[in-house]
Specification:
alpha+beta; six-stranded mixed beta sheet; two-stranded antiparallel ribbon; 5 helices
Length: 171
């Protein structure tokens, strides 16, 4: 049983939220995920708006996790294994600012941890280019439409460019 003190929330963007959500849901300690939009200024953003690339929002995940089972640091290392953090505004066939790599921090501690993890990932040499993941303050999260939630569970043959890479990122 988790308590309020052990429940934490993370907001991550690494390309299409379908593929990321499916992988994140499988990480031990993750309690819940929601696909949505964050990082922009358009209130109550919808997919039809975000897909234009003009809202400033990124397709993102809200991740609730039990910090006694999964540290924020470890969650970020998994994040860097499941998407390419070296491509600007692109993952696989998806391109545009809505597919950027970003960590939206909710506290100074999350910000520090994100910056430390990025340095560790870069120094590992596993990614052959510079990590360009944004580390920015969290503003607001807008839940995506229901058909986007757990999309790959509902559509097991759906498109995804996300997978877990076997990398030694220097954890």
């Amino acid at each position: 049983m988790t308590t309020t003190e052990t429940r934490q929330t993370a907001y991550l963007a690494g390309g299409c939220f379908w593929g990321m959500e499916e992988l994140v849901r499988q990480i031990p300690g993750v309690l819940a995920t929601e696909a949505g939009y964050t990082g922009g200024d358009t209130p109550d953003a919808t997919y039809e708006q975000v897909k234009t690339g003009t809202t400033g929002h990124a397709e993102s995940l809200e991740i609730v996790f039990d910090s006694t089972q999964l540290s924020y640091r470890h969650l970020l290392f998994e994040f860097f294994r499941m998407h390419n953090p070296t491509t600007r505004n692109r993952q696989g066939n998806d391109f545009g600012t809505q597919y950027r790599s970003a960590i939206f921090y909710v506290s100074e501690e999350q910000k520090r941890t994100a910056e430390e993890v990025i340095k560790t990932v870069e120094s590992s040499g596993e990614w052959k280019a510079k990590v360009i993941t944004e580390v920015v303050p969290f503003k607001e999260f807008y839940r995506a439409e229901e058909y986007h939630q757990k999309y790959l569970v509902k559509n097991p043959r759906g498109y995804t460019c996300h997978y877990i890479r076997r990398m030694n990122l220097g954890e």
